[in-house]
């Protein structure tokens, strides 16, 4: 056989093997995928065909995204030309699910079928399938039928503790859309900052959006220290918030705003102390100090005119007064005008009742409304807000503390203190979103050795634990399980002041969450996720300028049959990355030995019982991981 023909045939075979392998790199992994031999070539002459206005918007977004990978955009037409290479979007419901889609790639082109959201998700899968081979863009021939396991797939971003620009929020929305998330829960208010312009109450942003310093440690077990002695703050104008909503909607993401009440209200009360639980005389609240905090210190009823710069649960909360309810209705009216989402999140968590216990105003309401105690007063407070929102065609979501004292009639519960709140709410017939802090709090550390990681609030949440989560608790019957709408991770930002750190804590854990939210428990496979899909997606994130945490490599240690010595295999989890290692006790960095294949471990010295493999992963972009350690027995 001609040598050149042999080489050409081998290259063709290898390219087909590469393309077939890549079909298994789609993340989240599709419900069904049938791969065939061969590929389709996408070139600057390819045309996107989309008839409806919404399909054309999705096609234009895809074309812009494709340019980042291929260097060229595709024209979008309403009707297919007589000849040429086509990507056709056919808008029709698939499997009675508005988010389902089918994707067929043949030698003639691409056909994606689905409703509005389904077409968008089909295009996201197509983008992941596109592979550059030299200057050519090729796509493996596949047939995909796909739909999500859960209708709610969310990430919560806390912008109260640290403010993030609209540009960074948009970047986060771009990344979420590629992973088929459909909800951004936007935590806009808390004790440490109010982040949304409310035109009727300008002091919310003039005063409530700024703090003079940020102190870490006062609420926790370790010694307090100044983390940031600079003024911190910021807020979104109503036009900026509308732009975020519009931008998200184009990417099939709903933005749910959170306006905390009745607790986590210090920033509000710094601006408008008259909405608290006590009468105000020259800035001081009248009341009897009759309670202590968890440290045994007397509670101070003085209303601060400053936004607090330290974390923890604060005792200043809204009073159950006509003025406070009127204020909140005014605020929520403006919020509803900005955010068209069905849901408005009202918080309802971590509400210390101490001020209500000593407030004549609060006690008068308890007596008048024939309430049992302050817990029922909280339920009364939330039910009044729910009634107002329901009258305006909206529904409330609250953290699981809203169960205390009796649940509001139509509320959806977000279960964060483990799963029990969600279980209780589902058994009562309420819809539930599972977001337990045990598995889905992305502000937790990503390594057991916390000294190797950036400062975090605490806890330990590795990638595998995120992936292991199943949103439907086993304690629920089939009928009760139908109330579990989906799953959400929460990114609280007390210890996350920068864009880079935000991305570091989100990724790669958000990749694991994408499969938790999209796939059933039975369809998940962590080893396949690690080996087959994660590496390509991390490389893609790097190309998009995302500062993700570089995860530990897969290290397999086996016994070499002939010598009986340990044989070390290392697979980095970023595609194209290099690994540098030592086994002699020296530090591993880019001056160490480059891993090129399985390594025979040396025989330990006479005073050693074991060796330690030390290694770093260096990405194609030149970023180095932490130094990781693996004992070799």
Q: Can you tell me about this structure?
A:
The protein has 3 domains: about 5-145, Chitobiase/beta-hexosaminidase domain 2-like (Chitobiase, domain 2), CATH 3.30.379; about 150-545, Glycosidases (TIM Barrel, Alpha-Beta Barrel), CATH 3.20.20; about 555-630, Immunoglobulin-like (Sandwich). About 30% of the residues lie in helices and about 25% in strands. Strands 1, 2, 3, 4, 5, 6, 7 and 8 form an 8-stranded mixed β-sheet that branches. Strand 7 and strand 8 (about 135-145) form a beta hairpin. Helix 2 packs parallel to helix 3 (about 115-130) and helix 4 (about 165-180) runs parallel beside helix 6.
Uncertain regions spanning at least 5 consecutive residues: 1-21, 219-223, 282-302
Distance between the termini: 51 Å
User: What is the CA-atom radius of gyration, in angstroms?
Assistant: 27 Å
Helix share bin: 25-40%
| Proper CATH architecture of the largest domain | Alpha-Beta Barrel
Q: Output mean pLDDT.
A: 90
Describe the structure concisely.
The protein is of the alpha/beta class and 633 residues long. It has 18 helices and 31 strands. The protein is 31% helix and 23% strand.
Defining traits:
TIM Barrel; eight-stranded parallel barrel; Chitobiase, domain 2; eight-stranded mixed sheet; 3 domains; alpha/beta; 633 residues; Immunoglobulin-like; disordered N terminus
Question: Would you spell out the secondary-structure blueprint of this structure?
Answer:
Layout: H1 3-22, E1 32-42, E2 47-50, H2 53-70, E3 76-77, E4 86-91, E5 101-106, E6 109-114, H3 116-129, E7 131-133, E8 136-146, E9 152-158, H4 166-178, E10 183-187, E11 189-190, E12 193-194, H5 203-206, E13 210-211, E14 214-216, E15 225-228, E16 232-233, H6 238-250, E17 254-261, H7 266-271, E18 280-281, E19 284-285, H8 322-338, E20 343-347, H9 354-358, H10 360-368, H11 374-391, E21 395-399, E22 412-415, H12 420-427, E23 432-434, H13 437-440, H14 463-468, H15 478-481, E24 484-491, H16 499-506, H17 509-518, H18 526-543, E25 554-559, E26 566-571, E27 578-582, E28 593-594, E29 599-600, E30 611-618, E31 628-632
Parallel strand pairs: 2-3, 2-4, 4-6, 9-10, 9-24, 10-17, 17-20, 20-21, 21-22, 22-23, 23-24
Antiparallel strand pairs: 1-8, 5-6, 5-8, 7-8, 11-12, 13-16, 14-15, 18-19, 25-26, 26-29, 27-28, 27-30, 30-31
